[in-house]
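ok so for the tutorial part 2 we go from a plain amino acid sequence to predicted structure tokens. step 1 is just haveing the sequence, like this:
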Amino acid sequence: MCRALKVLCVASDRQGLMNLKRAAVSAEWELAPGAITEDDALAQLEAERPDVLVLFGEFEELVSRVREGRPSLPIVCDRDLPGATSVVGRLEEIRDAVRALPSPGGPVR
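step 2 — the prediction. this is what the tokens look like for a chain of 109 residues:
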């Protein structure tokens, strides 16, 4: 059984999240609802079980907490945060960054 790759976007405000999701959307994967706070992001990580996390903003603590619970989750950021898998400089680079990540493997849960 196959399923689409799921991407969770997190930004520091509603407009930023809308812009981030617009830049990240692709026919190749689905987007989780998205979050603008660390608590909402952590709740969606648990509920949605995304395959990739995309962060734009000051989320160093979130990256640290994610690494504790899901050390292999790919994380794409707009800045060089400890634990980031990939760093992009512009919104337009998100899709390529997600495509360049290794495909998740293993059984579907």
